[in-house]
């Protein structure tokens, strides 16, 4: 299904059809899991508890059904195309409303295009979901290069800016002259980069994740409120405790790739930990089978290493002849594209005063609940904020 030949601009229908042998192999490996020891009385402070992982792995082996989800996913229109030498997988959900606004949705790590399943219907067909048909979107939902069915990548250099250029080409290939962009996690970086590289065609960028780390310039925080300074300190404390995954994937993605590619229990723990840590602890939930489908996608496509290398590309621009990386926390030249920000309290806490120095912030919403996986945890809130932001730009 993959065609990496240069010059091939075709858009090819795609259908998921995982060989049964791959599913049997996964179950066999889960049946032979060797668990580490643990210190009695410890819970999540050292990482994933053994009891939690043991129960989840057994559920994955004996109860979870990939075929149910594969059938559900194949009801969505999926395609592949070749851009910049890379196979790109994407959903393309056309709205029944002819005047709908085109919108490209971009996921991050440890997510996938599966993050957006609960928002596809309300965004593409608001009339059928109690909304205003004027708020409808034609949806393009790509898999990042190196992730899922867009993996693996075969060369260096796939950072957010290069992905953004590919997305611009994808939207043009699909016939969209004017469109919006939305994303969280790495999808936020890609969406913001898209507002830079294709500013003539991007009407606005909406994100539900934004980093506004200080650059260290003298006087930079003089006009930042005490409340916002407290948010900065909280961000630093959370990052100090929970960024081991980032350091490892940004420095030795190939090494961790061996463990994740060979052990489904390792892959399970690596991602399930983030779903535990990054969702709203006060009642935030993500459906277990939905999470396992996301993890199974990483396993079946063997993209643990290639997705991890995205971190290396972002943090090692000097290793490439042409620098195009976007270091986390750095603020590029101010973008003219309107930016809308949805802030969920159990995620990164951006500072508007800092954001406005490098972005044309025209919309800012702070919610009282929700975490990192907004499209899965709080789909109604996210959909509502996306509608509000783009309504202001298009109506």
Helix content: 40-55%
Globular, elongated, flat, extended or rod-shaped: what is the shape?
A: globular
Please give the order of strands in the largest beta sheet: 1-2-3-5-4-6-7-8-9
Distance between the termini: 40 Å
Task: Please tally the β strands and state the result.
Answer: 9
Strand-pairing-aware structural class: alpha/beta
Low-confidence stretches: 1-5, 321-327
| Overall mean confidence score, pLDDT | 93
Give me the strand/helix succession. EHHHEEEHEHEHEHHHHHHEHEHH
Q: Helical stretch count? A: 15
Q: Give the C-alpha Rg.
A: 20 Å
Key terms:
395 residues, alpha/beta, nine-stranded mixed sheet, 9 strands, 42% helix, disordered N terminus
Description:
The protein is built from 15 helices and nine strands. α4 links the parallel β4 and β5. α5 crosses α6. The longest helix has 17 residues. The radius of gyration is 20 Å and the shape is globular. The chain starts with 10 loop residues before the first strand and ends with a helix.
Secondary structure elements and their pairing?
Elements: E1 11-13, H1 20-30, H2 50-62, H3 66-73, E2 78-83, E3 86-93, E4 101-106, H4 117-124, E5 137-142, H5 160-173, E6 179-183, H6 186-197, E7 202-207, H7 226-242, H8 244-251, H9 253-262, H10 264-278, H11 288-301, H12 304-315, E8 338-343, H13 352-355, E9 360-366, H14 374-377, H15 379-394
Parallel strand pairs: 4-5, 4-6, 6-7, 7-8, 8-9
Antiparallel strand pairs: 1-2, 2-3, 3-5
Helix pairs in contact: 1-2, 4-15, 5-6, 8-12, 9-10, 9-12, 10-11
Short description, anyone?
42% of the residues lie in helices and 13% in strands. By secondary structure, the protein is an alpha/beta fold. It is globular.
């Amino acid at each position: 299904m993959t065609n990496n030949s240069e010059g091939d601009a075709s858009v090819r229908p795609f259908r998921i059809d995982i060989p049964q042998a791959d599913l049997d192999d996964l179950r066999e490996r889960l049946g032979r899991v060797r668990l580490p020891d643990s210190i009695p009385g410890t819970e999540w402070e050292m990482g994933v508890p053994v009891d939690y992982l043991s129960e989840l792995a057994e559920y994955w082996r004996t109860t979870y059904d990939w075929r149910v989800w594969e059938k559900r996913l194949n009801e969505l229109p999926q395609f592949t195309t070749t851009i910049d030498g890379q196979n790109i997988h994407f959903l393309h959900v056309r709205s029944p409303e002819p005047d709908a606004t085109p919108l490209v949705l971009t996921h991050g790590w440890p997510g996938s295009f599966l993050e957006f399943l609960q928002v596809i219907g309300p965004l593409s067909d608001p009339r059928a979901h109690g909304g205003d048909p004027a708020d409808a979107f034609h949806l393009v939902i790509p898999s990042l290069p190196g992730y899922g069915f867009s993996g693996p990548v075969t060369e260096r250099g796939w950072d957010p800016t290069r992905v953004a250029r590919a997305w611009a080409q994808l939207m043009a290939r699909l016939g969209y002259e004017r469109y919006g962009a939305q994303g969280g996690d790495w999808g936020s970086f890609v969406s913001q980069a898209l507002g830079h590289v294709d500013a003539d065609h991007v009407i606005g960028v909406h994100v539900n994740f934004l980093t506004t780390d200080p650059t260290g310039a003298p006087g930079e925080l003089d006009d930042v409120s005490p409340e916002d300074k407290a948010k900065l300190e909280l961000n630093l404390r959370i990052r100090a405790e929970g960024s081991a995954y980032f350091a490892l994937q940004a420095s030795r993605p190939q090494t961790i790739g061996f463990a994740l590619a060979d052990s489904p229990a390792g892959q399970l723990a690596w991602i399930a930990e983030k779903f535990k840590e990054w969702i709203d602890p006060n009642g935030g939930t993500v459906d277990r089978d939905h999470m396992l489908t996301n993890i199974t996608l990483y396993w079946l496509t063997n993209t643990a290493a290639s997705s991890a290398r995205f971190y290396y590309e972002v943090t090692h621009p000097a290793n490439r002849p042409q620098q195009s990386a976007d270091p986390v926390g750095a603020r590029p030249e101010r973008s003219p594209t309107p930016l809308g920000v949805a802030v969920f309290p159990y995620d990164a806490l951006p500072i508007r005063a800092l954001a406005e120095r490098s972005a044309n912030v025209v919309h800012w919403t702070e919610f009282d609940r929700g975490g990192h996986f907004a499209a899965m945890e709080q789909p109604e809130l996210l959909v509502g904020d996306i509608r509000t932001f783009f309504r202001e730009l298009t109506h």
